[in-house]
Amino acid sequence: MRLEGKVALITGGTSGIGAATAVRFAGEGAAVAITGRSAERGEEVVQSIVAKGGEALFIRSDVRFADECRRAVEQTLERFGKIDVLFNNAGVFHPRSVPECTEEEWDETIDSSLKGAFLMSKYVLPSMIERGSGSIIHTSSGWGILGGDNAAAYCAAKGGLIVMAKAMAIDHGRNGIRVNCVCPGDVMTPMLPDDAAKRGMSWEDYSAGAADRPLGRIGTVEDIANAVLFLASDESSFVTGEALVVDGGGVAG
């Protein structure tokens, strides 16, 4: 049990990578708090964890807003007494180049990913500093390293997370706190077919392009959850300021 006795707070935990990671963490002994905007989906994740003997809490929260981030942290601390792991996973995606991207789409993308990670970290860090330990993980992307087509705001947000993680690792390493990013490639979540539709592509053509990488397949949410588990656990105790790419070789290729 790699997270026995630990408490994890996961944003964007109601579906996709966040939900899979919550279930994975709980299976490794962690008590888990998840946030998101859908109470129905959040409670479904909680019930799936509780049904297997785990402990979980859903907190309805929008990470774009400071008061909601502060409340999510306070409720987690009130319920579980501490936070050992913060997984900043919330985010949205709009397939737009700079001229096509509206100000509202830009703000939603940056605020959900980059600002949200800043706010959640801001309110979690004091308790981690007081206890002298913690692991913070941001969900970035391979496109946060290389960039990608028609995704200017998304690339900006994800690239910002990588450099912010490095800055946070420098600032808080002496406090016993590690800060890293996980950088998924194309992963089979609802975001993928939605992106295909917005780009006007058939799923057949889109999925073939997404699988065109050295390992020849689209990633699964479990692939990413396993990587986040590594960064959350003591197995990565000497890893900080790092961007772990989990993309089937897409960046390499």
| Biggest β-sheet description | 7 strands, parallel
How large is the count of helical segments? Answer: 9
Helix content bin: 40-55%
Strand content: 5-15%
Which CATH architecture of the largest domain is right?
A: 3-Layer(aba) Sandwich
Strand order of the largest sheet: 3-2-1-4-5-6-7
Please compute the radius of gyration using only Cα atoms: 17 Å
What does this structure look like?
This protein has 253 residues and is α/β, with parallel strands linked by helices. The chain folds into 2 domains: 7-184 and 220-244, NAD(P)-binding Rossmann-like Domain (Rossmann fold, 3-Layer(aba) Sandwich); 191-218, no CATH class. Helix content is 48%, strand content 15%. The chain contains 9 helices and 7 strands. Strands 3-2-1-4-5-6-7 form a 7-stranded parallel beta sheet, with helices on both faces. Strand 4, helix 4 (103-131) and strand 5 (134-139) form a beta-alpha-beta unit. It is globular and about 50 Å long. The mean pLDDT is 96.
